[in-house]
C-alpha cells in the first residue's frame, strides 16, 4: 500500500519562537515536613520557547530542573584509555522495546577493540550506569574496524566488523563478519564470517548498522501474541547507509542508489554465513510494481519494531514499512510513505505513543536538509525549521513519547511532540553517543570519560524534602531565561513556608479570585487557590453581614459541595441496598446510579444536574434487570458501562467464569463469557478486575494474572507471571492477590498486589503486539487490607493492618522514576474498619471512611497537591457508624464529582466540585450595565481556627444575557395565557412581562396538549430562501423595489416580499466581487471586487426607475493603491467614499478612506480620487479605521457633508466637507473624539476593545448647532449611543465639537461574553448586531431610539436568532433590515443557516413582532386551566417555568407552604458541605428564605 502523507500543519518553532512570559507573578508554597513535590514550569510559571530556569543559589527549599536535566553525577568509566566510541545500545525487551537498564558501548583505539557494559536494575531507571566492566573483542590488526553492536540476550553481544582483503590487492575488497562475546565469560567468543550471496567481496563503508530481533509468526488466529502454535526465529539485520559507501559522492550530494538490507539468521549460537533474506532495488521493484532497471534504493536508516514491522528509510523515495509473515522470509510491503517534498531525507524515527486509555498512536519524524516533519498516524502534525542545516552522518533524531530529540553535530535540541514547541537547547559537547528511551523521557549519553543520564521534561520546580519547619515565610526569585536571547528574562516571586504535619491553620495564598472587571453572565471563578489549609469551607461575607460590603444588587453564590435531591425517582430503602455504583460518562452534568437489592435485581437511574439549580437533580428510571448473583464489592467482580441507551455489564458468576451481558430497557441479552477449566482447582479466579478494554483474572494458586479482551471473542491475550517478571529482577515471590486499574484515565496502567509488594506496570495490546512492562515494585505490609486509587499523574496506596494505617501518595508522571511524595495527613481522624475506599476514576481523588470519635466522616483527598491542602473536604454523615458496620460508597466524575453514601440507615448523593466556584449574577430588576461592587469571601475549616476574609472591589458589567422567568407571577396566576375552547387554531399573545433577558429560543411542553400546543418566538422565519441557492456575500435594500445581493460573479435581485426576481451576471470573469452598495438616489449599484492579480476596484451598474440595471461597457475601474475594500458609500450622484481596510486583520494593510468623484457618460465612467483620509490627514501615527458613515446637512442654504469614522483604538473622527461648484467634496477640517478616555458611570471600555461600526441615528440643525446622535459598536464591550453638538456658526473654518454637551444616551448590552462581529444593519430605530464564539453566530436586534433621554438607559436585544456558522467572518454573510412604512417592526434578511441540499448558506427572511405567541389547536375538550412548561434559553443559560392556559382570570391562590414541600420526600437529606448564597447587603434574609425554611442542616466540619 502506498500512501502520501497528508500535510495539515505549517512550519513552527524556529519561525514563531516565543519569548518568555509569566503565568503567575507570585506563588506561595506551604510545604509540610517530609514531603516533596514538583511543579511543571510551563503549567504554573512560564510560557515561551527554549527556556532555562534558575532560583536563588542560596535557596535550600527548591531546585530547578531544566527540560534536559542531568540525573545525578556523571559516572567515570573503568578504563581511562578509551578511544573512539562507535556505538551505544540498550538492552530492550523483545516483547515491547522497553529498556531493561543494561547498556553496552563499542570502543576502538589504536591497540584493541572492547565492549564496555553496565548491568542495572530495571526498576532503578534513575541511576546512571557504571561502565566499569569490559570485554576485549580483539587486539587490533591493520585496518580492522568494528561498526556496530547489539544485544542477542542480556549477556550475549554481537559485533559487526570489517577488514580489507589484503590478498586481493587489485580489487581490495572487504571481509565482513560477526563476533559474539559473552559478558559472563569474557574468554568465550564466536566468529561468524559473512559471504556475499552474489559471490564477491563487500565494498568499503564508513558506517554500518545492525539490529537484532526475535520474530514470532502466527500460525493460528487464536494465538496472535506469539505463544503456542507460533513459529519463532531470530534475525539480525544489517545495512550500510547510502551516504557512507564508496559509491556515494557527497560533494555533489549524490547517494549510493544500489543499497542492500541483509538479514542473517541466528540459531544454535551461530549466524548463517550468507543472508537468509535481503532487500535490494530488485526486491523493492517487485513490491512496488516498478521497473527493476530504473528502481533506486538509497537506504539511510532502518528500525525494527517489537511487533516485527521493519521501517526502512530510503533517502530519496520515502519510508517502506515491511514485514515477514512466515519463516519463508518473503518481504511483504505494508505501507509506502512518500515524502511531501522532492528532496532528500537525512534521518527518521518511529515510535508508539501509549495514550491514557491504553490505545496507541503512531508517531514518526522525518528530517530533511533544513526542516523536520512530525507525523501522527500518517498525518503531518507540525513542521520544525532546523536551527542549522543537517549533514549526512551528523544528524540523530529520536522520540520518547511526548518529546522529540534532535542532535545536529554536537548540539541537542528538545521539542514537545504536541505542537513542536522548542523546550531546550543543550550546547555542551558532552556526547560521543546518545540514545533515548522510547517509552520514557530518559536520555543516556557517553563520552570517552564518563556516562551521563538525563531527564527530559517541560522543566520543573522541585520541592526538596525538609526534616523540620522554618521560621516564617521565605521569599525567593524564580527566573526563566531565553536561550535564544539571554537578555530576555522573566521572573516569579516564590514564597515558601514549611509547616508541621498536622498544622490545620489557614494561610493566605497568592491568588486572588476576583478580577477587576467581570462581565455577567460569566464563567464561574475558581476560588480554591485563595487560601491554603485542609477542609476549606467558603462563605459569602454578605451572609455574615460584613460591614465593608454595604448595599448592592448583585448576588454572589459559592458552590463547593452539597447534597443532591433526586427528583423524579424513588430509591429503595437504604437498608435494602447491598451494592451501589455511580457512573459519569462523557456528559459531565449527567450521572447514572446503580443499586442492587437482596432479590438480585439491579436498578439503574439516570440523573441530570445543572449547576444553575445546584441542589436538585432531575432523574428517571433508566433500566432494571436481574443479575443472578449478589455482587461482592470487595472482589471487584462487577463492571458496567453505558453506550447510548444500552448497558453492558460483566460479572463473576462462579470461581471459574465471568458472564458478559447487555440490557436495553430491561431486555437482557448474553454477549459471551470468559471460562476456564473448572475441574482443575488451580484455575480458580481468586480475584477479578474489569475495565472497559480488559478483564484481569488473578489465579493465585498458579501465581498468574490472566488478561482477557473485554470484547468478542473475549480472547486470552496475555499472562503476567514470574517468567515475565524475571527479567525485571524482582524481589521476593510473585503471588498475585488482586489487580487495580483505573477504568478511564491511564487505563493501561496495572497495579498488582502480591504478598509483600505492589507491582506497577503497563499493559498494552494490539493485534500481534501484547506486552507488560514493569516499572516499580513497592513494598507493603503483609496481611494488610490494601486499596489503590489511581489518578492522572499520581496514585495513592492505602493500607490498614490492625491499628496500623499507611496512606501514601506516589508520583508517576515520568514512569521510570516513580517516587513517593508524602504520607497523607489524618489530622485528628482515624480510618474505620473494614477499610472503605473509593476514588474518582477521572480525577484520582480519594474518598476514605474515617471517624473523629464522634461521628463517621468521609475524608476526600486531592492528588498532586501539597500536604497542607490535600485533605480537600471532610464530608459529615451526621451519624456514628462503628467499626465493622456496613458502610458503602461510590464515586465518579471529573471537575464535578458525584458520590453515593449509604450507612444502611440513610443514603444520599453528594455533588463535589474539584475547585470551589464563585458565581456572580445581578439581582432580578437590576438594569444598570456598569455596577461597582464590593464583595468578599470568608474561608474557614475546623472549629477553633481563625477564619480568613478576602474583600475586593469589582466592576460588574451586566449584559442582561441571564434569563429569568418570573415564576411567582406565573405561580400566583397573576399572569395566565387566555385561550378559547375550540377546535380551530388560535394564536395567544404571550407578552414579555413574565421574563427578562436575551433569549434566543423558546420551547413549550404540555402533557395535556401534547403536540397541539406550539410556540412562535418574537422573531421567526417566514421565507427559507430556497429560490436563491447562491453563494451570497453581501446584500442591501434597493429602494422600494426590494433587495439586491452580491455573489462572486452576479447580482441577485429580490422583490419587496423576499422572493427571487432575477440574476444578472457580471461580464468580467477576471474579477471576484465581495461587497455591494446602492447610491442614495438608487441610480447606481456598486460592487467591490478583487482580480486574479490581487487588484481591487469598483464595478458599477446604472439603474433606471429601480429597474433596468445595466453595466457600463467598461464594467469596472481599479482603485489605485487600495488593497482591501471593506465599505463603499455613494451619498449622492457624484461622490463615492471607499474604505480600504481589512476587518479580519486590521494591521495587515494600511487603513484609509478614499473620497472620490464619479464622472460618466453613456458608455464609460471614471472614479477620480479627491482626498485620502489617512494618518497624515488626521495627524496620527497609527490610524486604523473600522467604519464610517456620512451626515448631510445645510447651513445657510449651503450643502455640507461630514464623514464620521471610527479609529478602532481610540474612538471617533469627524471630517467635514463642503461642496464645490461641480458638486464634489472640498476639504475643510477634522476633529478627533477619544472615546477611550470618555467618562460616565455607565460607560466601560475593555483595554483590548476595538471601536468597530458607526451609525448616525439622527442629525439636525438647531440654530447654529449641528446635533448628532450616533451609535458606536465595540468588539468586546457594550455598544453606545452618543449625542454630539457641533458648533456650526463658522462652517467654512470647521465645526468644533462642543465637548461640554457630549452625552451618553443609551448602552446596548452585548451578548454575554461573546465578541461582536464587525458588522451591523440599521433601519428606522432598529439595529441588528451579530456576535460569534467562532462556532456559532447570534444576531440580536435592538430597539434603539434616536433621542437624548437625559438619563443613560440600558437596552438589551429583545429579538435574537442563532445558527452554527463555519465560514469566514465578518464579510462572508449578508445581513440587512427592511421596514415597511406602516409596520411597527422590521424584517431581517440574513444567510447564516447552512442548507445541505443546495450546499449554500441561503438568504432567509425573518419577521419580528412584539412578543412570542402560543399556537393552540383542538382545545375544545380542555378544562378551564391547563398547566404547561416554558423553556427559555441562550448560550449561557436555560431556564424553565410552570405556566397556565386559562379561559378566565383567576384569583391568586394561597402560596404553597414551603415546609410541606421540604418534608414531602427526601426528609432524611441533610446538607453536608457548606456553600454560601447571598444578596449582598440583604444576604441574611435571602439565605433564610432559600434554605432556612427547608430544615437543611449546615455543615460544621
Automatic annotation (TrEMBL):
Residue ranges crossing the lipid bilayer per the database entry: 1466-1488
Keywords associated with the record: Membrane, Signal, Transmembrane, Transmembrane helix
UniProt signal peptide: 1-17
Protein name: Uncharacterized protein
Organism: Paramecium primaurelia
Lineage of producing organism: Eukaryota, Sar, Alveolata, Ciliophora, Intramacronucleata
Amino acid at each position: 500500500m502506498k500512501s502520501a502523507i497528508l500535510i495539515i500543519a505549517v512550519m513552527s518553532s524556529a519561525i514563531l519562537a516565543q519569548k518568555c512570559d509569566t503565568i503567575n507573578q507570585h506563588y506561595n508554597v506551604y510545604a509540610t515536613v517530609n514531603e516533596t513535590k514538583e511543579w511543571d514550569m510551563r503549567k504554573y510559571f512560564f510560557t515561551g520557547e527554549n527556556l532555562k530556569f534558575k532560583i536563588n543559589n542560596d535557596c535550600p527549599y527548591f531546585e530547578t530542573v531544566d527540560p534536559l536535566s542531568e540525573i545525578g553525577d556523571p559516572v567515570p568509566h573503568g578504563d581511562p584509555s578509551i578511544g573512539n566510541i562507535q556505538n551505544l545500545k540498550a538492552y530492550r525487551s523483545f516483547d515491547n522495546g522497553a529498556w531493561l537498564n543494561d547498556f553496552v558501548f563499542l570502543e576502538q583505539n589504536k591497540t584493541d577493540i572492547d565492549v564496555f557494559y553496565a548491568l542495572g536494575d530495571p526498576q532503578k531507571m534513575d541511576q546512571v550506569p557504571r561502565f566499569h566492566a569490559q570485554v576485549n573483542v580483539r587486539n587490533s590488526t591493520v585496518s580492522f574496524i568494528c561498526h556496530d553492536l547489539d544485544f542477542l540476550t542480556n549477556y550475549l553481544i554481537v559485533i559487526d566488523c570489517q577488514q580489507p582483503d589484503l590478498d586481493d590487492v587489485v580489487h581490495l575488497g572487504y571481509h565482513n563478519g560477526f563476533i559474539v562475546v559473552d559478558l559472563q565469560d569474557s574468554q568465550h567468543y564466536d566468529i561468524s564470517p559473512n559471504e556475499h550471496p552474489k559471490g564477491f567481496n563487500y565494498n568499503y563503508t564508513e558506517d554500518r548498522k545492525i539490529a537484532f530481533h526475535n520474530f514470532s509468526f502466527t500460525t493460528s488466529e487464536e494465538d496472535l501474541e506469539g505463544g503456542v502454535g507460533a513459529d519463532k526465529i531470530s534475525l539480525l539485520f544489517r545495512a550500510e547507509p547510502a551516504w557512507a559507501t564508496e559509491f556515494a559522492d557527497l560533494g555533489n550530494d549524490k547517494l549510493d542508489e544500489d543499497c542492500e538490507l541483509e538479514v542473517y539468521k541466528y540459531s544454535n549460537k551461530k549466524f548463517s554465513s550468507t543472508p537468509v533474506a535481503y532487500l535490494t532495488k530488485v526486491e523493492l521493484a517487485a513490491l512496488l510494481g516498478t521497473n527493476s532497471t530504473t528502481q533506486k534504493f538509497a537506504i539511510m536508516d532502518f528500525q525494527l519494531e517489537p511487533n516485527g514491522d521493519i521501517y526502512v528509510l530510503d533517502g530519496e523515495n520515502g519510508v517502506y514499512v515491511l514485514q515477514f509473515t512466515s519463516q519463508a522470509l518473503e518481504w511483504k510491503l505494508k505501507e509506502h510513505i512518500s515524502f511531501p517534498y522532492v528532496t532528500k531525507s537525512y534521518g527518521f524515527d518511529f515510535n508508539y505513543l501509549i495514550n491514557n486509555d491504553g490505545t496507541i498512536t503512531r508517531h514518526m519524524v522525518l528530517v530533511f536538509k533544513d526542516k523536520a516533519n512530525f507525523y501522527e498516524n500518517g498525518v503531518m502534525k507540525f513542521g520544525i525549521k532546523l536551527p542549522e542545516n543537517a549533514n549526512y552522518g551528523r544528524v540523530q533524531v529520536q522520540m520518547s513519547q511526548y518529546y522529540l530529540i534532535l542532535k545536529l553535530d554536537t548540539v541537542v535540541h528538545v521539542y514537545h511532540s504536541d505542537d513542536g514547541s522548542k523546550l531546550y537547547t543543550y550546547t555542551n559537547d558532552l556526547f560521543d553517543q546518545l540514545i533515548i528511551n522510547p517509552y520514557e523521557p530518559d536520555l543516556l549519553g557517553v563520552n570517552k570519560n564518563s556516562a551521563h543520564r538525563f531527564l527530559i521534561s517541560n522543566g520543573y520546580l522541585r520541592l526538596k524534602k525538609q526534616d523540620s519547619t522554618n521560621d516564617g515565610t521565605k521569599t525567593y526569585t524564580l527566573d526563566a531565561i531565553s536561550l535564544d536571547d539571554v537578555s530576555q528574562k522573566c521572573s516569579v516571586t516564590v514564597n515558601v513556608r514549611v509547616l508541621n504535619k498536622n498544622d490545620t491553620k489557614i494561610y493566605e495564598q497568592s491568588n486572588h479570585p476576583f478580577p477587576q472587571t467581570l462581565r455577567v453572565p460569566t464563567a464561574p471563578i475558581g476560588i480554591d487557590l485563595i487560601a491554603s489549609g485542609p477542609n476549606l469551607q467558603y462563605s459569602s461575607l454578605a451572609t455574615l453581614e460584613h460591614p465593608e460590603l454595604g448595599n448592592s444588587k448583585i448576588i454572589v453564590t459559592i458552590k463547593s459541595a452539597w447534597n443532591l435531591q433526586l427528583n423524579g425517582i424513588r430509591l429503595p430503602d437504604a437498608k435494602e441496598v447491598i451494592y451501589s455504583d455511580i457512573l459519569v460518562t462523557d456528559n459531565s452534568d449527567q450521572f447514572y446510579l446503580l443499586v442492587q437489592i437482596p432479590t438480585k435485581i439491579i436498578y439503574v437511574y439516570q440523573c441530570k444536574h445543572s449547576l444553575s439549580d445546584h441542589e436538585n437533580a432531575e432523574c428517571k428510571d433508566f433500566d432494571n434487570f436481574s443479575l443472578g448473583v449478589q455482587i461482592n464489592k470487595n472482589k471487584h467482580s462487577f463492571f458496567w458501562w453505558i453506550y447510548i441507551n444500552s448497558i453492558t455489564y460483566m460479572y463473576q458468576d462462579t470461581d471459574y467464569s465471568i458472564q458478559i451481558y447487555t440490557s436495553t430497557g430491561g431486555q437482557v441479552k448474553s454477549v459471551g463469557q470468559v471460562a476456564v477449566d473448572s475441574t482443575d482447582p488451580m484455575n480458580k479466579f481468586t480475584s477479578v478486575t474489569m475495565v472497559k478494554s480488559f478483564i484481569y483474572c488473578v489465579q493465585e494458586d498458579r501465581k498468574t494474572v490472566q488478561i482477557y479482551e473485554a470484547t468478542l471473542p473475549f480472547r486470552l491475550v496475555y499472562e503476567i507471571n514470574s517468567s515475565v517478571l524475571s527479567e525485571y529482577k524482582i524481589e521476593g515471590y510473585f503471588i498475585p492477590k488482586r489487580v487495580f486499574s483505573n477504568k478511564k484515565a491511564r487505563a493501561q496502567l496495572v497495579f498488582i498486589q502480591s504478598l509483600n509488594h505492589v507491582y506497577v506496570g503497563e499493559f498494552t495490546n494490539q493485534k500481534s503486539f501484547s506486552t507488560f512492562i514493569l516499572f516499580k515494585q513497592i513494598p507493603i505490609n503483609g496481611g494488610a487490607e490494601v486499596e489503590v486509587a489511581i489518578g492522572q499523574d499520581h496514585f495513592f496506596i492505602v493500607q490498614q493492618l490492625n491499628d496500623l494505617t499507611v496512606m501514601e501518595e506516589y508520583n508517576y508522571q515520568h514512569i521510570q522514576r516513580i517516587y513517593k511524595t508524602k504520607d497523607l495527613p489524618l489530622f485528628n481522624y482515624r480510618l474505620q474498619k473494614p477499610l472503605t475506599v473509593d476514588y474518582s476514576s477521572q480525577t484520582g481523588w480519594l474518598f476514605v471512611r474515617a471517624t473523629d470519635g464522634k461521628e463517621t466522616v468521609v475524608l476526600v483527598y486531592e492528588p498532586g497537591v501539597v500536604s497542607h491542602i490535600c485533605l480537600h473536604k471532610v464530608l459529615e454523615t451526621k451519624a456514628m457508624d462503628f467499626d465493622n458496620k456496613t458502610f458503602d460508597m461510590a464515586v465518579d466524575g471529573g471537575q464535578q464529582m458525584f458520590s453515593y453514601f449509604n450507612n444502611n440507615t440513610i443514603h444520599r448523593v453528594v455533588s463535589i466540585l474539584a475547585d470551589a466556584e464563585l458565581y456572580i449574577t445581578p439581582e432580578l430588576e437590576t438594569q444598570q450595565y456598569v455596577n461597582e461592587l464590593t464583595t468578599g469571601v470568608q474561608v474557614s475549616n475546623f472549629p477553633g481556627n481563625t477564619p480568613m476574609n478576602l474583600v475586593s472591589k469589582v466592576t460588574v458589567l451586566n449584559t442582561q444575557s441571564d434569563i429569568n422567568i418570573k415564576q411567582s407571577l406565573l405561580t400566583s396566576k397573576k399572569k395566565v395565557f387566555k385561550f378559547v375552547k375550540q377546535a380551530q387554531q388560535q394564536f395567544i399573545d404571550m407578552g414579555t412581562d413574565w421574563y427578562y433577558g436575551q433569549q434566543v429560543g423558546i420551547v413549550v411542553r404540555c402533557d395535556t396538549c401534547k403536540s397541539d400546543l406550539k410556540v412562535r418566538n418574537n422573531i421567526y422565519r417566514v421565507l427559507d430562501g430556497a429560490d436563491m441557492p447562491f453563494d451570497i456575500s453581501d446584500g442591501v435594500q434597493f429602494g422600494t423595489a426590494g433587495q439586491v445581493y452580491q455573489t462572486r460573479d452576479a447580482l441577485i435581485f429580490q422583490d419587496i416580499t423576499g422572493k427571487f426576481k432575477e440574476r444578472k451576471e457580471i461580464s468580467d470573469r477576471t474579477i471576484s466581487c465581495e461587497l455591494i452598495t446602492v447610491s442614495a438616489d438608487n441610480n447606481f449599484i456598486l460592487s467591490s471586487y478583487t482580480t486574479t492579480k490581487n487588484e481591487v476596484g469598483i464595478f458599477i451598474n446604472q439603474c433606471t426607475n429601480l429597474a433596468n440595471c445595466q453595466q457600463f461597457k467598461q464594467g469596472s475601474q481599479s482603485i489605485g493603491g487600495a488593497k482591501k475594500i471593506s465599505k463603499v458609500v455613494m451619498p449622492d450622484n457624484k461622490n463615492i467614499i471607499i474604505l480600504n481596510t481589512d476587518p479580519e486583520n486590521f494591521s495587515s494593510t494600511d487603513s484609509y478612506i478614499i473620497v472620490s468623484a464619479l464622472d460618466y457618460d453613456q458608455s464609460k465612467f471614471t472614479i477620480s480620487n479627491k482626498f485620502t483620509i489617512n494618518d497624515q490627514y488626521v495627524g496620527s501615527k497609527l490610524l486604523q479605521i473600522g467604519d464610517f458613515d456620512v451626515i448631510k446637512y445645510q447651513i445657510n442654504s449651503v450643502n455640507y457633508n461630514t464623514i464620521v469614522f471610527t479609529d478602532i483604538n481610540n474612538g471617533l473622527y469627524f471630517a467635514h466637507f463642503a461642496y464645490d461648484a461641480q458638486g464634489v467634496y472640498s476639504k475643510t477640517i477634522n476633529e478627533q473624539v477619544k472615546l477611550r478616555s470618555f467618562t460616565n458611570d455607565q460607560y466601560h471600555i475593555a483595554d483590548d476593545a476595538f471601536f468597530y461600526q458607526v451609525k448616525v441615528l439622527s442629525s439636525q440643525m438647531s440654530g447654529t448647532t449641528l446635533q448628532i446622535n450616533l451609535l458606536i459598536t465595540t468588539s468586546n464591550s457594550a455598544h453606545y449611543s452618543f449625542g454630539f453638538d457641533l458648533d456650526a456658526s463658522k462652517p467654512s473654518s470647521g465645526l468644533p465639537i462642543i465637548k461640554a454637551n457630549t452625552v451618553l444616551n443609551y448602552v446596548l448590552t452585548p451578548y454575554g461574553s461573546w465578541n461582536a462581529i464587525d458588522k451591523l444593519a440599521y433601519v428606522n430605530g432598529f439595529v441588528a448586531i451579530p456576535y460569534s464564539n467562532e462556532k456559532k453566530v447570534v444576531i440580536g436586534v435592538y430597539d434603539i431610539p434616536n433621542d437624548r433621554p437625559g438619563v443613560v438607559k440600558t437596552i438589551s436585544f429583545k429579538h435574537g436568532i442563532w445558527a452554527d456558522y463555519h465560514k469566514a467572518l465578518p464579510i462572508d454573510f449578508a445581513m440587512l433590515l427592511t421596514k415597511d412604512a406602516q409596520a411597527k417592526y422590521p424584517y431581517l434578511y440574513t444567510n447564516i443557516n447552512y442548507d445541505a441540499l443546495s450546499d449554500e448558506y441561503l438568504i432567509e427572511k425573518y419577521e419580528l413582532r412584539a412578543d412570542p405567541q402560543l399556537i393552540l389547536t383542538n382545545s375544545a375538550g380542555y378544562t378551564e386551566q391547563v398547566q404547561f412548561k416554558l423553556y427559555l434559553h441562550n448560550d449561557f443559560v436555560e431556564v424553565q417555568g410552570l405556566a397556565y392556559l386559562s379561559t378566565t382570570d383567576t384569583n391568586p391562590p394561597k402560596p404553597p407552604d414551603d415546609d410541606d414541600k421540604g418534608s414531602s420526600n427526601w426528609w432524611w437529606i441533610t446538607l453536608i458541605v457548606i456553600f454560601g448564597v447571598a444578596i449582598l447587603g440583604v444576604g441574611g434574609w435571602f439565605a433564610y428564605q432559600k434554605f432556612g425554611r427547608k430544615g437543611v442542616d449546615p455543615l460544621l466540619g
